[in-house]
Amino acid sequence: MLNSIYPMSDPLKEYLVVNLQVKELGRKDILLKSGHICRSIYFIESGLLRCYYMQQDHEVCSWFMKEGDVIVSVESFFEQKESREYIQAIENSVLHYLSFEKLEYIYRNFLEFNYIGRVLVQKYYKQSEQRLYSIRMQRGLDRFEYLKINHPDLIKRVEQKQLASYLGITEQYLCMLKGTGKQKKRLIS
After folding, report:
1. In which domain, by residue range, is 32 found?
2. I want to staple 61 with a disulfide (CB 3.0 to 4.6 A). Which of 104, 114, 120, 165 is the partner?
């Protein structure tokens, strides 16, 4: 995946082969807890993870990451400070990861990786902007429609409670929105 963004030198490939580690998570395993420092950056080979915050006594889902994505608590990782969020596996997952120090080493010693890093940061910054726009400017129905069009697999893979939290709507409203499509299909048939 990284090589498809920009060709990597053989020494960089060798460094990654030696230094990338693998972590397997079971469904509901916690990768990062609030108050801990995110010390590694993870590439998701398989599975689905979510990020959430605790607000009083309930969880507020802020994003989901799946196969082919990079997952990290951004502020915690890049500033090496305590996280305010949790990262949890929703499905059994296989992750490849590098420590903060090893990633910094790569940036200093393999200049081509700076291009790869920039492309990845642009991708996730764009997603973050889309999410903020959605939260601030769109109604719950519009957020659901966007998700249905751009990430339909999440509707099937994520628990309704977590999906409703992510969309900023109630579970009942999400249930109604999911049912609306089925009702339309029945009317057309």
Report:
1. 8-109
2. 165
Residue 159 belongs to some domain of the structure: no
pTM of the model: 0.85
DSSP-derived secondary structure letter, 119: H
CA torsion, points 132, 46, 152, 60, in degrees to nearest 10?
-40
Residue 79 belongs to domain with CATH number: 2.60.120.10
Structure confidence at residue 183 (pLDDT): 47
Q: How many domains does the chain have?
A: 1
DSSP string, 67-81: TT-EE--HHHHHHT-
Starting at the edge strand that comes first in sequence, how are the strands of the sheet with 30-32 ordered? 30-32, 86-89, 48-55, 58-66
Ramachandran region of residue 13, left (φ > 0), alpha (ψ -120 to 50) or beta?
A: alpha
Residue 65 and residue 49 in contact, taking contact as beta carbons nearer than 8 Å: yes
Low-confidence ranges of the chain (pLDDT < 70): 135, 180-189
- pLDDT for 150 equals 87
Place of tokens 């010693």: 109
Provide CB contacts within 8 A for 153, sequence distance 6+.
66
Cα-to-chain-centroid distance, residue 118: 17
CB of 167 within 8 A of CB of 55? no
Angle between helices 112-137 and 100-109 (to 10 degrees): 120
Distance CA 84, CA 76 (A): 8
